[in-house]
Write a structure and sequence with these properties.
alpha+beta; Outer membrane efflux proteins (OEP); 5-stranded antiparallel sheet; two-stranded parallel sheet; 10 helices; elongated
């Protein structure tokens, strides 16, 4: 037995040395991705090249409430927790793939009562115990490619978590800005309503004095109730935005109603002068969705080799060691070992068709990666253009709102003096409400567009310092 065991170990050791020498299938290479040298919209005054503050970009608003909501969501958001669980799942599945490097060893035992026929004529217990082993040698790299694919899938799940971070922080900022914008619009509408109530009282007094016709009273009521009717939809949108924020931070709807109350609301605005955006090539390293698509491509590429290995012979080292004993006496030892070769020489092109399917899947994954890069570039350019153009628009709206406010004051004095009819007052009050509402909306849009810039750049996390840029 010792002689056979030594021979087995020598043969096995020689085969193991060959294990790992060959990996069939294409070796993965990160695709070369042409990128523009600069952003087209970066020539605008509001945007500059340079290293952006992406890790904590929301701090540019200088809003403690927003900062607190981001912090709360980082630990409580359920979508984020789900993504973290997916990472754990991918890591465990990677362990399943890596376990194929090692032999499967199974221990077993049995005890039974037996009665044998003469001449043994034994009646008593039969006891058995043993070990069995099966070890597939990874001669063609099937296991290595499977582990390579699982590694890339695990890395893709990490990038998915980071992408959820990017989207989550942007969603919180957007909904918070929506809350403050809606509160400001309601504030303007209620102020205008109070002014219109005074105007309605003025027309009623002048009508009672016989100075104006009943038409003035009817028109003032029309103006008042039209303004009043615009407030409930704004309040409904406000409730929905607050509810959404509550859920994003892992709370029940309405949980943030009291915390977000603001009698004199202020729309968050960037406290800096210019927005740094970096270079287009930085997206390949910063955008988690691009990084995820690249890792998914790597995972799919490795599956080609894992499948292709089935075209070649499979070499397995099986072995058994068993002890069998009748009663309490000495037992018999049996063992067996030796390499086994299995080669699927005909399968109706099933394996080759599967290889072709994995190759087509890799080609599709490459197109997805390239499309993800293009969409990222488009998103950055669109968000920068929107921010720049809305910045120009808000300046015009501020001038228009100031002019409308001044016009209401002037036309009201003229009406009191009897130098103009009420139609002019009506028109100016309506214009003031419209201009102030548009101004509040525009200020909110500027901040939303700024959030869009940082989201499109992949802000909200920082790549590891030791990781080289792609």
């Amino acid at each position: 037995m010792k002689k056979h065991l030594v021979s087995f170990l020598l043969v096995g050791s020689g085969i193991v040395l060959l294990n790992g020498c060959i990996s069939v299938g294409p070796d993965y290479e990160v695709p070369e991705t042409p990128m523009p040298d600069a952003w087209h919209e970066a020539v605008l005054d509001e945007v500059e090249s340079g290293d952006p503050n992406l890790q904590t970009w929301w701090t540019v608003f200088g809003d403690d409430t927003l900062n607190g909501l981001i912090t709360k969501a980082s630990t409580n958001n359920l979508t984020l927790k789900t993504a973290a669980a997916r990472i754990e799942q991918s890591a465990a599945l990677r362990g399943v793939s890596a376990s194929q490097y090692w032999p499967d060893i199974v221990a077993g035992g049995a005890a039974s009562a037996v009665k044998t026929a003469p001449p043994q004529d034994y009646e008593g217990g039969l006891y058995q115990a043993g070990l069995s082993m099966a070890w597939e040698l990874d001669l063609w790299g099937r296991v290595r490619r499977s582990v390579e694919s699982a590694d890339a899938t695990l890395q893709a799940s990490v990038e998915n978590y980071r992408d959820i971070l990017v989207v989550l922080y942007a969603d919180i900022a957007r909904n918070y800005i929506d809350v403050r914008t809606l509160q400001t619009r309601i504030y303007f509408a209620e102020n205008n309503l109070q002014a219109q109530l005074k105007t309605m009282k003025l027309t009623e007094d002048r009508f009672a004095s016989g100075l104006v016709p009943a038409l003035d009273v009817s028109q003032s009521k029309l103006n008042r109730f039209r303004t009043e009717s615009a407030i409930p939809p704004l309040k409904q949108a406000l409730i929905e935005a607050i509810n959404r924020l509550s859920v994003l931070t892992g709370d029940m709807p309405y949980a943030l109603l009291q915390e977000l109350e603001a009698p004199d609301p202020t729309i968050p605005a960037c406290t800096g002068t210019q927005i740094a955006t970096g270079l287009p090539a930085d997206l390949l390293r910063q955008r988690p969705d691009i990084r995820r698509a690249e890792r998914e491509l790597a995972s799919q590429n490795a599956l080609i080799g894992a499948t292709q290995a089935d075209l070649y012979p499979t070499l397995t080292l099986p072995g058994t060691l068993a002890v069998q004993s009748l009663g309490s006496g000495g037992g018999d030892v049996t063992y067996g070992f030796g390499p086994q070769l299995r080669w699927n020489i005909f399968n109706g092109k099933r394996i080759r068709s599967q290889v072709a399917a994995e190759e087509a899947g890799t080609k599709a994954a490459l197109y997805v990666y390239e499309q993800t890069v293009l969409l990222a570039l488009e998103e950055v350019e669109d968000s920068m253009a929107a921010y720049a153009n809305e910045t120009d628009r808000v300046q015009m709206l501020e001038t228009a709102a100031d002019a409308a406010e001044k016009s209401v004051e002037l036309v009201t004095e003229l009406y009191k003096s009897g130098l103009t009819d009420f139609q002019n007052v009506l028109n100016m009050e309506q214009a003031l409400l419209v201009q102030q509402d548009e101004l509040a909306s525009s200020r909110g849009l500027i901040s939303l567009d700024l959030v869009g810039i940082y989201k499109s750049l992949g802000g909200g996390w920082t790549p590891p310092a030791e990781e080289p840029a792609e």
